[in-house]
Design goal:
Strand content of chain B: 15-25%
CATH architecture of chain B: Roll
Order of helices and strands of chain B: HEHEEHHEHEEH
Helix content of chain B: 25-40%
Low-confidence stretches of chain C: none
Chains: A mainly alpha (about 210), B alpha/beta (about 130), C mainly alpha (about 300)
Mean pLDDT of chain C: 81
Number of strands of chain B: 6
Number of domains of chain B: 1
Number of strands of chain C: 0
Distance between the termini of chain C: 21 Å
Largest interface: A-C, 22 and 22 residues
Order of helices and strands of chain C: HHHHHHHHHHHHH
Largest sheet of chain C: none
Strand order of the largest sheet of chain B: 1-2-3
Helix content of chain C: over 70%
CATH class of chain B: Alpha Beta
Oligomer: heterotrimer
Shape of chain C: globular
Structural class of chain C: mainly alpha
Chain lengths: ~210, ~130, ~300
Amino acid sequence: MFFEKAFPHGKKERKVIENIRSHLSLLCTACHTLEAALEKRDRNLMGEVINLENEADIKRREILSNIYDGAFLPYLRPDLCKFVEIVDSIFDFLEETAYCYLEAEIPPEMAGECLRVAFFNRQMSEMLLITFQALVDGEDLREKTLAIRIYEKKIDDIKNYLTKDLRAVPVENFWNGLYLSNFLSSLTGISDVIEDASDHLQIISVSIR
Amino acid sequence: MNVHEFMTTRLEFVDGGASVYEAVEKMVDKRIRSLVVRFSGKDDGYGVITARDVVFRVLAKGINPQKMKVAEIASKPLIIINQDADLNEASGLMEKSNVARLFVSDGQRLVGLVSLMDVMRAMLIIRARGKYVL
Amino acid sequence: MWKILGGVFLGWSLGANDSANIFGTGVATGLVKYRTAVLLTAAFVLLGAVLEGSKCMGTLGELSRLGALEAFHCTVAAAVTMTALTALAIPASASQAIVGAVIGIGLFYGSADFSKLYKIISCWVFTPVCGIIAAYLFHRVLGYILEKTVVSLTNRNLLYYLGIMVSGCYGAYSLGSNNVANVTGVYVGAGQLSAETAALIGGISIALGVLTYSRKVMMTVGKGIAPLDPFSALVVVLATAFTLHVFTQIGVPVSSSQAIVGAVVGVGLVGDLRTVSSKMLAKIAVSWVLTPLSAGSLTYLIITLIK
């Protein structure tokens, strides 16, 4: 017992890293599912996104308890936990997007751009996983975080267009309008949080040098 | 990664018969550097007018942009690339033709525009992806 | 034989105070459990005292001729000075206190040998200097090596953890080997104890101080240095341990607090000269003068009172 604590061989740390990796893989899957659901206009598939959010929540709790079970140096733990929480809020945005989609009617003229946003979201989530892997391997994160920022700006541009186009959409029903608006803001908000997450990885990378 | 993943789908048009000044107003308001020119009449191709054209051929020469028509300084034909082409083809074509943007077609019609900045951003992303297989 | 108790008291207060310099950061940041830290410190202090503690024993005895009773007075005076200064929150160095006490006795009896004092004082001055240089070099060199070799997150993490443990043990060892002479060296000079026995008894008394009374100081000192990143914290402890060990070889007991302050400054120099506060430097300079003076005058007073 004393030896395990006195001479750690990184078993707990590896477990945490594995779990965070699968948490991020789950994120990629969720983004991919959202994209596919939008493309095929599949309501069942959209419902899957909500299920994935639940699964992610369970994963998050597991990771947090692993960390406080004694993995990593105490000064690293809060940053790692913060990262997991940020990723968790990405799932919340995905869930919100899915809910609003199921409640609202997306005008066909906006469907194409929305699909593009979902496409870029998926690419961003994959880049986030790559960035995390780079952090674990001790590499420089600069190029990866730049890539994520590029995606975020691209989505920002589309968001501007969508917001302008939205004003031209006739709204007979207030609730439909509300859900449509919420759908757009959560769909375009996903990328902001992914960018936050990657910024946080940069912080962790700097603090361990 | 191919062109259609990184292009802009929003194209802004201007009539060949409009004044250069109208074109300039549009460019300023929409914060873009080029406009697709629609030629009226039997010549139903497209052309392009860019900020370079406006500056070097009109403003810097002291010519009044309100007195000049877009069709007089537009370049044609458009330099087009297919949406399934890859980035290297795009950058090669830009370099060969000495332009900063290419127009994207799906085989039948114009679907977008890919600029030098777009190509740069896409190449940076490929670099970041590096050896990672997704 | 009861006169040895003065030394035991001094050793105990030294252990309680100075052990914070070794594992303070580790414990305050939650890296090392307090129990583990004190057990390791006590063990390695004793080891250091027994293995190399005798190297410094001679120095104090050279300062002035001491009988057993005088030795007792010295240690008590030094211990009291230490306690008083600690209570006033002024950094207290056992080395400087005991030297002041011995000189005080020497002045009273007119048997002080000031020529030996020069060697000791120059070592005091060089302690923080050595700390600065060692810390700066270790940070640069080790940092460079680590950058090239250990890069992955898990490995870095493991390395820092092991590093703090190992450097802590080395630090405790150096502290024991260097400072045990402060505690019982006077009795060797007085002929009451052999160097080896003095080292053993002194080592045990220091270890006892570590085990029983070091918690509060460990938390306070540790928190003060805690803002350092783990690598710098590691280098600070390593540099302090190294400095103490060097002076053990020279044969002069020095202050671990001054060594660690130097080490922190040295690490600060790697980053930016601005992080080195002139206030801290001033504090070191003041305590160089204040501690031995007050210890000496106190001893003088005590002796006059008794006679």
